[in-house]
Amino acid sequence: MANLKSLAKDTAIYGLSSIIGRFLNYLLVPLYTAKLSAASGGYGVITNVYAYTALLLVILTYGMETTFFRFANKSEENPNTVYSTTLISVGSTSLLFVLLVLAFLPGIAGWMGYGAHPEYVGVMAIVVALDAFQCIPFAYLRYQRKPLKFAALKLLFIVLNIALNLLYFVALPALYGRYPDVVGSIYNPTVGVGYAFFINLACTGLVTFFFWKELVDIKYRFDWSLFKRMLKYAWPILVLGIAGILNQTFDKMMFPKIYGDHADTQSQLGIYGAATKIAMIMALITQAFRYAYEPFVFGKSKDKDNLETYAQAMRYFIIFTLLAFLAVMAWIDVFKYIIAPDYWSGLKVVPIVMAAEIMMGVYFNLSFWYKLIDKTIWGAWFSGIGCAVLILVNVLFVPKCGYMACAWGGFAGYGTAMVLSYLVGQKYYPIKYPLRDITLYVVVAAVLFAAMMLPVQNMWLALAYRTVLLLLFVGLIYRKEHLAQMLAKLPVVGRLFTQV
Question: What are phi and psi of 262, to 5 degrees?
């Protein structure tokens, strides 16, 4: 229980920064969808460009984040040497990437469909290179168990990003109409959606300076022998990461090319991208869990009770993600106001995308068996097969079904990778997961979701009806998990709980 307390405490801090940050960042969704109409396709441009940057971020970190944790926790390795070697490696490749993109910018921008605006591509290339470099100092903070600084820097980026977006998409456009000569020196209405990318660059660049201590107060040393061993461990993780991020972004990158030469291509992509933002609450939970769980697992790998702890962590992860799924679906009539009304036609993808995110989280939790036995090649196979399934579904069905095929493609891809990882993992690193209880929770959640989908005309009656169904699931958790005793033993929450 002490180990789970530590995991819960770190997850709470990482999760708080992630959830608050994402919640604040959600302010950009109604802002963009209000200022960039669905018909204009402006939000489709943002969705498309950020999909590319997500893939590039995985490529530019090439598995070195996870590899850092693995080697820094090895008794025979010097953590400072591991950190400095990783930092120099990722920093050098990120710089090389920026130079190559800028050298061939017109051709790259033309291929992506932004020949008229190559600055979008150039700016985001610099942003993703800085993000890749920052991943290593952020990992170092997690290794040192400094979640407060980690959280503060993440929130700094979000708050500054939102403030500048409000300035350039709301305040300055309003002032420009009255004082064009004055405001025109810092604002040009023809830039439009481009401001989203320029603002990202400014915020990312500023955060880099706050890693002064992590970048200066270390003894730099590049160990070639260590680097070769790290690359051997990391390259399957890179393949795994590429396949994994393609599961999330392939549809958004390739939709304009697969959907066909339709006038509403960017509009449809924008609707799909905006609707999936509502489903991203599941990504918040899995991300927060990952930030705390990754160093926790590697640090606990030598303990005798590690297998039991991993099984219980999976149990609680599934319980709370199912609870989050039902909460979003119960109050979907409220959450839909995150996006503008002309994007509501895409709400039907929300439950599909959320279910896919749950399976992605389960797959991530399962993935540690091959990382702990240094057989990361298995992850490459699982993610590669899952990605192939996703691509096949998209290529076959997007021309006919539009963005609904994108949602089901992600569901099929994650589901395939999850099942394969579990089946093979039970052979090489068997863990006795509480399958009976997990199955019970999944079945009950599915039944309650189906009941929530019954049509109720009055919105307030619908909210009340669905809330009652949600409380039934909460009651099941409370009764079956002895939630009162469990909460009382957790840090912070436990103290509050015992005072009630």
Answer: -105, 150
CB atoms within 10 A of CB 453: 12
Amino acid at position 455, single letter: P
**DSSP 3-state of 402:** coil
Contact between 304 and 443 under an 8 Å Cβ cutoff? The reply is no
Q: Dump pLDDT digits (tens) for 315-359.
A: 888 888 899 899 999 999 888 888 888 888 889 999 999 999 889
pTM: 0.70
Q: Which pLDDT score is estimated for 338?
A: 81
Residue 22 is predicted with a pLDDT of: 60
Specify the DSSP class assigned to residue 280. T
What pLDDT is recorded for position 53?
92
Burial of 219 (0-12, 13-18, 19+ CB in 10 A): exposed
Kindly give the residue spans of alpha helices, DSSP state H, lying in 367-453. Answer: 368-372, 377-401, 403-428, 435-452
Q: Do the beta carbons of residue 39 and residue 268 sit within 8 Å?
A: no
CB 259 within 8 A of CB 394: no
Backbone phi, then psi, for 350, in 5-degree steps? -60, -55
Report the distance separating Cα 28 and Cα 112, nearest Å.
24
Distance CA(157)–CA(169), nearest Å, equals: 18
* Neighbour tally for 103: CB within 10 Å: 9
Instruction: Read off the DSSP letter of residue 457.
Output: S
Residue 116: which residues within 8 A CB-CB, separation 6 or more? none
> How far from 32 is each of 48, 156, 170, 248, CA to CA, in Å?
14, 21, 10, 21
Q: For residue 429, what is the DSSP state?
A: S
Distance in Å from the first CA to the final CA of the chain: 22
DSSP type of residue 344: G
Residue 297 pLDDT: 56
The residue ranges of the chain whose pLDDT is under 50 are: 489-500
**Distance, CA of 495 to CA of 142 (rounded, Å):** 25
Q: Could you tell me which of 36, 95, 105 has the C-alpha nearest to residue 267?
A: 36
311/317 Cα distance (integer angstroms): 10
CA 123 to each of CA 96, 115, 249: distance values in angstroms, whole numbers, following the listed order: 15, 14, 20
With CA atoms as reference, report the closest residue to 66 among 240, 234, 306.
234
User: Six-digit token pair at 110?
Assistant: 């033309």
Query: Is residue 339 helix, strand or coil?
Result: coil
Cβ-based neighbour number of residue 389 at 10 Å: 20
DSSP 218: S
Answer for the pair 101, 121: CB distance below 8 angstroms, yes or no.
Answer: yes
